[in-house]
Amino acid sequence: MGTLLVRPPGHRRDVALRPAATAMVWIGEGHPHETIAVPGVALGENDVLVAVEMSTICGSDVHTVQGRRSAPVPLVLGHESVGRVIAMGDAGAVAVDGTPVRIGDRVVWSVTISCGTCDRCTRGLPQKCRTLGKYGHDRIGVHGDLSGAFGTHVQVRAGTAIVRVPESLPASVLAPASCATATAWAAVARAARDHDLEGAAVRIHGAGLVGLSAAAIAVEHGATVEVLDPAPARIALAAGFGASRIDRDPDIVIEASGHAVSDAVAGVGTGGTVVLVGSVFPAEPVPLDAESIVRRLVTVTGVHNYTGAELAEAVGFLAGRGRAYPFADAVGEVRQLAAIDEAIAAASAPGAPLRIGLVPGR
Length: 362
Hints:
Elements: E1 13-25, E2 34-43, E3 48-56, H1 59-65, E4 81-88, E5 106-113, H2 119-122, E6 133-134, E7 153-156, E8 160-164, H3 171-174, H4 180-192, E9 201-205, H5 209-220, E10 224-228, H6 232-240, E11 252-255, H7 261-267, E12 273-276, H8 290-295, E13 299-302, H9 308-319, E14 331-336, H10 340-347, E15 355-359
Parallel strand pairs: 9-10, 9-11, 11-12, 12-13, 14-15
Antiparallel strand pairs: 1-2, 3-4, 3-7, 3-15, 4-5, 5-6, 5-8
């Protein structure tokens, strides 16, 4: 009788890349990115290798490069991408909808990597996993070098929520889905746990892509939405995402800028809900008028990142009713990946577009 050969648990599949993948490595504030070549990867049993179609520069990437957020170096930044599956580990991977991921699938994926078994994951908080990993946030080397979006490829690890996306949607719509759109969906969904969105009055502070996305999502669920922002050009954009004016104290306030927390809490109506989603960088503590919150029966809650289901729902929105809104225009410029330093400088300049896209040179 023959011998059955079984690969040991934890076996990794070596995948050679010809030409080699490249990744743009950030080595610290004040230094340009360095390009590294990655001639191959070792895929875990449930890992997926994705060739990047487009990545976009998020505000958090800009904050990191400017030294406003701490980050381990060396680091491949970036966590907003769309791409195509080109290789998988021996056991394959499963998408959020429960179907197998296949070679050739066009996908987006969560910014977070979760174990799925800790107390937080089992409570429905995978984005706060006890052993959390994050694309574009973790030092290279521990889990390979293709660990962020600013490269030609990304090694999507087991524990990542993967969502198949339509071929018909532009990359400029899909790349930001795994941060801005999914976060906005999670913020609106959190508010909807307390209030019926049909007929609700919603105020959003911040007309960045999270705030504008939240406006469109809330409008499509029957709310009247106003968006506040100190930049007139951003306010002008808000109308295209369904914003108008509300005629009463808001039932829901979504603070998406990180700069208007006090105004958000002070301005919500009695019995209202304030969702804080923009406070993701160090800032001065905000005074809290506890008596006012208590007497007005106000709920204040925070949203950070999202679940895999919320990413899938955000993509479904973009593929459906979201087509009525100018999401494709959010990426105002597209540059080559090799020009990443100039692109990040442009993204931080006054009057910058909502997003700048990066595409690998072919």
